[in-house]
Amino acid sequence: MAATAACASLLLAACVPGLSDDAGLYFGRNDGSVPMAERQTVEVYISDTAPRYAGIIEDVAREAGGVLGTDGDSRYGGCTTQDEADVDIAWAALDVALIDYEDLRRIVWEGAQRNGFAYSATPDYSGKHNSRSVAVGDEDGNLVIFTHLEGRGFINIGFYSGCMLPTHTYDLDTPYKQLPLPSVEEMFPNLRIVDAFDENSNLNPELSSQSGPQSGAQSGS
Fold first, then answer.
1. Cβ distance 135 to 142 under 8 Å?
2. Separation in Å, CA 213 to CA 94, 208, 216
3. DSSP code of 3?
4. 120 pairs with which residues across the strands?
């Protein structure tokens, strides 16, 4: 978790030539520049902020054929602060079919501009899978990272909230992990939802190649 936050901080601190970029203001998951007492609560994040990030993810998924793969579960976690009430959310890992990297950059940048989010990218290839990344985030530490894995043939999407308080009326006797989280199907009702991988860790064929933008009915796997 700490490594993910560190990588995100470096990514959003990078500048992207030719694109408007204020990403240097933001520092990743648990390090948002807004004081904790002034941040949105989980209620506000789920009802307002997370759907705006989900809209950018949906734009990318529709360009990739309208199919969104899931891997793992959405979950609450404890923040790296001294207050036991502070929490963050790591949504289920998401995957879509590979699209052109420049198309990915354009779609995510347009979504960032539309929502007032910070935007950044690492356009140089990295690692054995020829990965490149694009990210959007904000001053509350919320973050979405799109990792373009050319060598594996798909885009992995990491969707994280910053650190925040559960609600304004949080009852410390109720474990925060019992607070409900929207399902992937509820977050993305206009996409077809499938398992990203089978039991042998093989990529779902529906995510293995681009079939072009389309709207699709949501479906379980």
1. no
2. 18, 15, 10
3. H
4. 135
C-alpha dihedral, 82 to 46 to 49 to 78, nearest 10°: 20
Tokens of 98: 């590979």
**Tokens (6 digits) for 16:** 């992207």
| Side-chain-facing half-sphere of 169: CA atoms under 13 Å | 0
**Each residue of 99-120: pLDDT tens digit?**
999 999 999 999 999 999 999 9
Kindly state the tokens that stand for 5.
Answer: 């936050």
pLDDT at position 206:
94
**What is the per-residue burial (b if ≥16 Cβ within 10 Å, else e) of 154-193?**
bbbbbbbbbbbbbeeebeeeeebeebebeebeebbeebbb
Query: Is the whole model's pTM more than 0.85, yes or no?
Result: no
